[in-house]
Amino acid sequence: MKPQLRIWALAAIFILLLPMVAACGGAEPAMEEAAAEAAEPETAAESTEAESSSAYNEAPMLAEMVANGELPPVDERLPAEPQVVEPEDRIGTYGGTLRFGEVNPINLWSFATLRMNGLFRYDFSNTQVFMDIAKDYYFSDDFTTLTIELREGHKWSDGEPFTTDDIMFAWEDVAMNEDLSPAGPRSIWRAGGEPAVFTKISDTVVEISFAVPYPIIMNYLGRTGVATDNNVIMPKHWLKQWHIDYNPDAQELAEEEGFETWMQAFNFHNRPPNNFRIDGPTLWAWKNETLTSDRAIVVRNPYFHQVDTAGNQLPYIDRIEAVITGDKEVQTLKASAGEFDFETYYIDMKDMSVFQQGAEQGNYRVEFAQNLFSAELGLMPNRTVKDPVLRELFNNKDFRIALSISIDRESMNDTLFFGLGRPFPATVNPGLSFFKEEWATTHAEYDPERANALLDSVGLTERDSAGYRLRPDGEGRLSMLIHVGVSEGPKIAMAELVRDDWAEVGLEAIVENLGEQGGLFSQRLATNDLQIPTWHLDRNALFGRSLGSNYAVDQTSFWTGTWKDWFRTNGEEGVEPPEEIKRQREIFEQYKLTAVGTEDFDRLGAEYYEYFTSEIPMIGTIGFTPRPVIISNRLHNVPLEGAAWISDNNFYAPFMPSQWFIEE
Asked: Each residue of 634-658: pLDDT tens digit?
């Protein structure tokens, strides 16, 4: 008998944590786990009904392939129990090409998240986990074992079965393989300090056991990108040809392909789909088809596991074509001219007048989502930066305070967000039960006079003829690099305003935009060549302990520099952090395993996040801003009520693009 202990059963409690989102998820497309025969025979416009007794309909382009003998019938392509999606407004129309835009030519990140499917997904409020690729999940009574159930008959886009073998392969043959994963599995799979144990029960059921009770694993897996292709799921039937344990000629094959080792070849073919791997299967709604220097095209996956309430296999849209602009300004111009059917990732509030003026001619409307970032731009002085002068300054609390209070957040809010955001330091969502009101203002109120005094007190008293402060080692002007890691939203403009504010107190800063240069930010992060990396301060919606947070102190944060390498390698690499940082990690390890709503949860959460206020390792700017969303008038079924924007839910996942449709 299954113990039905579900995280989402607590949604009534969790929803209290996110007061910023109005009508949370109220109009999001409903997900039904119905059997095949439950579908009522409504008909989608332009759909092709099978002449047989099939309960399902399919896109005309697929019906033609079936007629030509290129595909099996739709009944044979769908799982025995497909996921049933209730469309946002109405049953859609098959066909068409969605027009999209992408700035980053290397990892195509926005384009990837638009079309990503995972085992699970969050709703807009980030409080409820829905099924997606997975059919079901449940915990043991003591929360030490998570059982995941897949859909019988589910297939990859190439028609091969998707089973628990693909999960076991990702774990046993990749995550636990010392050649492919020398550092071992990711931290989320090591609760209690021990690697999880994956056990195949059947082709559709896998058990994952942990050393300690671990209910918050669903906080992590709810983020679509964590439990998707190239991560928890890998197509064993395709990838094993490059794996030495399955193919004794894998090394020879790798060399024939131009690689030095079989591991390099394996990792190349196993690269994330957002890197536009064309030659491998996927479980996403659209599979990669074409990539050139200026565009990427994906086409519908004929084996996709979702149907609507009328039995029409999703997605409705045949293709998505992304123009690779390579530049945010070009992206903005094209969006304002109506050249995209949907855009939000790369556009800014500061350009609202341009969008409003172009809406009628461009045949689109402008809507808004609620941004849940506590800071749209967070500045993170690297505490182990290579420059010894900067390293000493960045480790000086008074210097960090001076950096923060010299930023005119009110002016930034008015200039870039029409006063609609909230000036906010680097701290967590105010909806958290242990949040303290003073956290919202500490070291965040504009005070250039005090900032100047603090900068003088740390020894930066000498200035050059232009008024900039000099380095205490006599090597000229003190200069810092602000490295912008992602060009999504208004981050460049915000960094430039910070630069200007710091100049007013005699500090020179140079803004380097690495967000449009492929993986350069990640490369420099790995080699400790970033001075003040920036990112949005996110992944704090889920009780302040979600995956990949810069509020962590070990493997994921940018401000900890090579301290995180020390944690990652158990002291074999990197720089040993001070005791206060080690203590922070200990607190976090306890906190993330503590039940929500308990005294220990509030006590540990308050103790952990007090550090980020008192010691200010990161600097916040403006949070909780409105996010403009451009939607073509020919695009339908886009949910907007309660719409939120945060990476915890992989940005686009709650918008459910598979049930969008195009109708002129």
From this structure: 999 999 887 777 666 667 778 899 9
Q: Are 143 and 5 in contact (CB under 8 A)?
A: yes
Q: Is 295 exposed, middle or buried (0-12, 13-18, 19+ CB in 10 A)?
A: middle
Which residues does residue 533 pair with via DSSP β-bridges, in sequence order? 483
Q: What is residue 24's three-state secondary structure?
A: coil
222/428 Cα distance (integer angstroms): 20
On the question of pLDDT at 131 being above 90, the answer is yes
Tell me the pLDDT tens digit for each residue of 287-302. 999 888 899 999 999 9
- pTM exceeds 0.90, yes or no: no
| 584, two tokens | 């922070």
Percent pLDDT > 90 in the chain is: 63
| 194-234 tens-digit pLDDT | 999 999 999 999 999 999 998 888 878 877 777 787 789 99
CA distances from 611 to 503, 604, 607, 614 (A): 28, 11, 7, 5
Largest CA distance in the chain: 85
367 bridge partner residues: 629
Task: Give the DSSP H/E element, type plus range, for residue 580.
Answer: helix 579-591
Distance CA 516, CA 521 (A): 9
Rg for the chain (alpha carbons), in Å? 25
Q: Which stretch of DSSP H or E encloses residue 30? A: strand 30-32
Could you tell me which residue, 34 or 427, shows the higher pLDDT? 427
Residue 395 in any domain: the answer is: yes
| Between 262 and 491, the higher pLDDT residue | 262
Which pLDDT value is given to residue 536? 87
The token duo for 337 is 């001219």
Hey, what are 158's tokens? 């190439």
Closest among 421, 473, 484, 425 to 645, alpha carbons compared = 421
Residue 402 lies in a domain: yes
Q: Do the beta carbons of residue 58 and residue 76 sit within 8 Å?
A: no
Q: DSSP class of residue 573?
A: S
Paired with 368 in beta bridges are: 628
Question: Per residue in 605-621, pLDDT tens?
Answer: 899 999 999 999 999 99
Name the pLDDT band for 116 (thresholds 50, 70, 90).
Answer: confident
Q: Which residue has the tokens 């301060």?
A: 537
Q: Which CATH number does the domain housing residue 559 bear? A: 3.10.105.10
> pLDDT by residue (tens digit) across 392-410?
999 999 999 999 999 999 9
- CB 252: neighbour CB atoms within 10 A? 11
- The Cα–Cα gap between 580 and 587 comes to 11
Strands 30-32 and 48-49: unpaired
The number of distinct structural domains making up the chain is: 1
What residues make up the domain containing 608? 375-623
Q: How far apart are CA 75 and CA 52, in angstroms?
A: 10
Residue percentage of the chain with pLDDT more than 70: 88
> What angle separates helix 409-417 from helix 491-504, to the nearest 10 degrees?
150
Distance CA 520, CA 533 (A): 12
List alpha helices for 376-533, DSSP H.
388-394, 397-405, 409-417, 448-457, 491-504, 520-526
DSSP, res 116: -
In terms of Cα–Cα distance, which of 490, 464, 489 is closest to 477?
Answer: 464
Is the residue at 43 inside a domain? no
Could you tell me which residues come within 8 angstroms of residue 81 by beta carbon, excluding any fewer than 6 positions away? 33, 34, 35, 36, 135, 151, 152
Q: What is the DSSP string of 81-100?
A: SPEEEE-SSS------EEEE
Question: What number of residues does the chain have?
Answer: 664
Q: Is residue 42 part of a domain?
A: no
